[in-house]
Amino acid sequence: MKYEATIGLETHVMQKTSTKMFCACKYEYGAEPNTHVCPVCLGYPGALPVMNEKAIELCCKAGLLLGCEINPYSKWDRKNYFYPDMSKNYQITQADEPLCLGGHIELDVDGEMKTFTLERIHQEENAAKNTHIAGASLVDYNRAGTALMEIVSNPCMSSAADALAYMTAVKQIMQYGGISDCDQEKGQMRSDVNVSVRPVGQKELGSKVEIKNMNSFAFIVQAIEYEIDRQIRVLESGGTVDQETRGFDSDRGETFIQRTKEDAHDYRYFPEPDLMPVKIAAKEIEQWRSELPELPSQRRERYVAELGLPEYDAGILTADKDISDWFEQVMKHTQNAKAVSNFIMGEMMRLLSEHGLSISESKITPEKLAEIIALIDAKAISTGAGKQVFETIFIDGGEPKAVIEEKGLAQVSDDSALEGWADEAISSNPKPVEEYKAGNAASINFLMGQVMKASRGKANPGAVMQMLKQKLDG
């Protein structure tokens, strides 16, 4: 029997707000534990929450970017549970009246256009960070109460590839929209994954298994693939898949049971009495809509249509917003988009990887790269020399022309110098000369190489080729 999988994602995204969701405490990743706290985010009795308007705006803008309808009326609820990461024993969230409804993303997955739909986006507060060590658990409340939104997809995906494409798109859109940095290592984006399988053709979905709190795309892919295989093996052996919550062991590449349906929490949602409902006017929604940035998909299309870049280049450049923004800055100083693309995809990305840096930490600026490209276009230096200049500035800093002069990289186009190298190559290599004159046009490339070797790469290749042909065809 053949089976098909159904997958849905609940993705938590920390928003870029200067203060927490319901208090004035700031959040600073890596700060000394429990230093950015107050009676509100510590859950002291009698402390009253105050809504963060910026978080509401960012959540609604995220909804607009993802094609959601903004709910003109939403309210707050208490999600009750007892655990150290939520000291007041409930989380302020939105149960039945979220800020954003519906939505969708259209994506190319392995050459097939697919539409992934959303159920909702709701605003809530983050939990504290638990650290478990031998014999004890430590709690850092610096993260408690930070602005967090949950993007809930419908069960609309059928493979790990679908889930990866969806998560990648959500991450890019949130970054481009200025909603979140989505740094997974800092816990700014994490997902719960719901997986079920059923026989092909069966309308009713299989029992749902939820894999909790995953912050790595690679691990999510592994977990989905393992869980689909596990559930199919259970069904094929005559068993039944239980609705349960599971974790993922990245060392073993396996999911493991955490709790069964019978043990699942009853969160006992009820309306939050300390906060007024949120009412959003149509005028405010349109104002936010007018402030939305260019999406990565729109930027890719523009790079191809207006700048003439190949689709591959456009995809690479827009995959990371910082890279794309840096490319945009270079293009303010040059018209040679392909050369800029080649340098970023080649030299820049290689050096960033080797040195463990972000593009903003590089010593080479957009203006300096544009100057290097202008010098190559003017044939003042060769492309190879341009790469040397780029790497030197990336590592040590400096100005392009100063580096060229210091390293003697200027390209030689002077006829008298070129003629001497050309004559030496011709006189020292009679065999390729004879082969060329006998009709083997490719033999001139050997002579070209000899001239470039003699000039230590400084000779202008175009001028060298022209001079060699003049001398051999004359």
Q: How many strands, which pairing sense, and closed or not: the largest β-sheet?
A: 10 strands, mixed
Unreliable stretches (pLDDT < 50, length at least 5) are none
Report, as a whole number of angstroms, the end-to-end distance. 77 Å
Count the beta strands: 17
Counting DSSP H or I runs of 4 or more residues, the number of helices is 15
Instruction: Kindly state the percentage of residues in helix.
Output: 25-40%
Task: Determine the strand fraction and express it as a percent band.
Answer: 15-25%
pLDDT averaged residue by residue: 93
Count of individual domains: 3
Overall form: elongated
Task: Give the oligomeric state.
Answer: single chain
Task: From the alpha carbons, calculate the radius of gyration and give it in angstroms.
Answer: 30 Å
What is the structural class? alpha+beta
